[in-house]
Design goal:
- The protein is α+β, with helices and mostly antiparallel strands.
- Among the domains are: about 80 residues, NADH-quinone oxidoreductase subunit E (Arc Repressor Mutant, subunit A); about 80 residues, Glutaredoxin (3-Layer(aba) Sandwich).
- It has 9 helices and 4 strands; from the N terminus they run αααααβααβββαα.
- It has a 4-stranded mixed β-sheet, covered by helices on one side.
- A hairpin with a 2-residue loop joins strand 3 and strand 4.
- Helix 3 crosses helix 4 and helix 4 crosses helix 5.
- The chain is extended.
- The protein starts with a helix and ends with a helix.
- The structure holds FE2/S2 (inorganic) cluster (FES).
Length: about 290
């Protein structure tokens, strides 16, 4: 659309007296209205697994509202998206109004508030990814998904996975480092209902964090410690040579080890200047007297 078309379109949409094109934008809050209700636990059944996850999140913060995002994420994982029912369940456990949660869920792109069956492909085009070719990946991704009505391709700011740049989030699954030709595979995988680019999924990689990926990869067993009967404690009594070679005395006859005459000597009673007192020092001493 040209700039002239955009201006004409903007002019055709009416502005209200408050200056905005959104009706009711500056309507005062109705203070006589009843406050939104917090769902009643008696009439809002919450799946036990979801309740436990939300309560674990709430226990981490002094203010329970700080757990709203992880709680919504848990509800989205459980229900597939943040449905009205999911919002009610989170609100019930957190003792918040559903409206509070809706305001959060509709603000962040990673929460889905409808179930349109759209696949979200967010290609990170921030600095690390951009330096590694993200702009080409994004263009290729748009081209690959051009005829797919259910694939929503969007450029995105840093997704926090710069170590696999250039990367993308496909329905919340991080994949990378991406090549331009991977974009076609992403579309084919989505079309076929397969796991997307499985060999490039971040969640399927080994991690230095022993708790990460532990569902997929067994943790390494901790090294066995065998107490030796009558043996030395390996911490308190290291084996001979374990602490490196023994220290040797300084050879004072070595000219390289001779003390620097500019530095203070340990036995210098004045401590700082070192060497013989200068005329200036003597004059200073006299002034002090
Ligand atoms: S810049 Fe792309 S994940 Fe950080």
């Amino acid at each position: 659309m040209s700039a002239a078309d955009r201006t004409a379109l903007a002019a055709s949409v009416r502005r209200y007296s408050h200056g905005s094109r959104v009706p009711g934008w500056d309507d005062a809050v109705d203070l006589d209205k009843d406050p939104a209700a917090i769902p009643d636990p008696a009439s809002t059944p919450v799946p036990e697994e979801l309740r436990a996850t939300i309560e674990r999140s709430m226990a981490k913060y002094p203010d329970r509202r700080s757990a709203a995002i992880p709680a919504l994420a848990a509800a989205q994982r459980f229900h597939g998206y943040c449905s009205p029912e999911a919002m009610d369940q989170v609100a019930c456990v957190m003792r918040l109004t559903p409206g509070y949660l809706v305001s959060l869920a509709t603000f962040y792109d990673m929460f889905k508030t409808d179930d349109r069956g759209i696949h979200d492909v967010y290609v990170c085009t921030n600095i690390s990814c951009s330096l590694c070719g993200a702009d080409d990946v994004y263009d290729a991704m748009k081209e690959a998904a051009r005829d797919e009505t259910d694939v929503n391709v969007k450029p995105f700011e840093c997704l926090g996975a710069c170590d696999i740049a250039p990367m993308a989030s496909v329905d919340g699954i991080y994949v990378g480092p991406l090549l331009v030709e991977d974009t076609q595979t992403i579309v084919e995988d989505l079309r076929a209902g397969r796991a997307v680019l499985e060999h490039k999924q971040l969640r399927l990689r080994r991690s230095a964090d022993p708790d990460a990926n532990s569902e997929r990869f067994e943790r390494d067993a901790p090294p066995a410690f065998e107490a030796r009967e009558g043996g030395a404690d390996p911490i308190r009594e290291p084996a001979a040579g374990a602490a490196g070679p023994p220290m040797i005395g300084v050879d004072k006859s070595d000219p390289a080890m001779a003390p620097d005459p500019q530095l203070p000597r340990d036995d210098d009673p004045r401590g700082s200047s070192g060497g013989e007192p200068s005329e200036a020092d003597s004059a200073e001493e006299k002034d002090d007297r």
